[in-house]
């Protein structure tokens, strides 16, 4: 029997309620920073590990056991839907998503057929079902936002300046819009299937949206992220939205239809709340570099993040981006302990 999670600190904080403690989880909490991950992950593409439901279940549980975090995040990747429908993309160890034939013309839309989760990603659904049977904390499902996934399909590899992506956005806005619409549909189908299988919250990762100006974002990207959020609204799970270097975009991103706004480490939480206005929970935002620097620096940083939130209800503690492979898990354990003992929220804050 899976436990009743409605009073979990994580879900309470997502709803903006005072939680029994400030909940904490870490983006990319599973993975190469953990020796137990390296021990079972094997070589080859991460997609092979994701296609193995027993392995993915165990990898998802590892950080929950080790850190005592308040939520699990499904072990999967943002390129899984495009991979599963046969676009032709892989995740190369040490590099990231790579497509031998990048998306360059209208004909490439045919490489993104609609997804049938039962047939195309049965292992994801099995992993979710395994997890919700085992977990005592909520499971977060996720998808890549249309822009961030498009950047991998168009560039064919991780990029610094998104030159091809922005070139298409400005020179063939209709093709760019059709691609993002297609990716929005894939994200909706994938998220709905994860939630229907038992995930109790979702995060839309628009990791690289910070490459855009607010005007570019508003015209070419926001409508499709909004479409994703609307496409899961009836399932009534908290929707978290996050991107890196998005300080200038927070007011826009928060209009996509979200309950929780993820904040990277560049913007203190009080300033982030000022930018997005009332009615949102916030998630973040300790700089991973301050964990890298060791416990003394991480401790000061953790206290600063809690202080910047100022005890306001609706704070989910996290890093300001994902866990780096070189971070010391012992320091992260201490961060969790400190947030749990010192993090308090109050309706009067
Ligand atoms: O623990 C978790 O957060 C759950 C698993 C998870 C992975 N990828 C597993 C993974 C999640 C939530 C993601 C999301 C993801 N994937 C994002 C958004 C989050 C972010 O960091 O901004 C992005 C941009 C990707 C694309 C991607 N996949 C990159 C950039 C990489 C890293 C390349 C590398 O090797 O450094 C991957 C591979 C990947 N996805 C790994 C993991 C644990 C590491 C490589 C491996 O073990 O093979």
Could you give the topology of this structure?
Blueprint: H1 9-14, H2 35-41, H3 46-50, H4 53-67, E1 72-73, H5 80-84, E2 90-92, E3 96-98, H6 117-120, H7 122-134, E4 139-144, H8 146-155, H9 163-171, H10 173-197, E5 201-205, H11 214-220, H12 222-232, E6 239-242, H13 250-253, E7 260-262, H14 269-276, E8 281-286, H15 288-292, H16 295-309, E9 315-319, H17 329-342
Parallel strand pairs: 1-4, 4-5, 5-6, 6-7, 7-8, 8-9
Antiparallel strand pairs: 2-3
Helix pairs in contact: 4-7, 8-10, 9-10, 10-12, 16-17
Coproporphyrinogen III binds at residues 27-32, 41, 46, 73, 75, 77-78, 91, 93-97, 142, 158, 205, 207, 322.
Summarize the structure.
With 349 residues, this protein is an alpha/beta fold.
Write structural notes for this entry.
The protein is α/β, with parallel strands linked by helices and 349 residues long. The protein has one domain (31-278): TIM Barrel (Alpha-Beta Barrel). The protein is built from 17 helices and 9 strands. The strands form 2 sheets. A 7-stranded parallel sheet has the order 1-4-5-6-7-8-9. A two-stranded antiparallel sheet has the order 2-3. Strand 6, helix 13 (250-253) and strand 7 form a beta-alpha-beta unit. The longest helix is centred in the middle third of the chain and has 25 residues, at 173-197. The model has no long low-confidence stretch (mean pLDDT 97). The chain binds coproporphyrinogen III. Coproporphyrinogen III binds at residues 27-32, 41, 46, 73, 75, 77-78, 91, 93-97, 142, 158, 205, 207, 322.
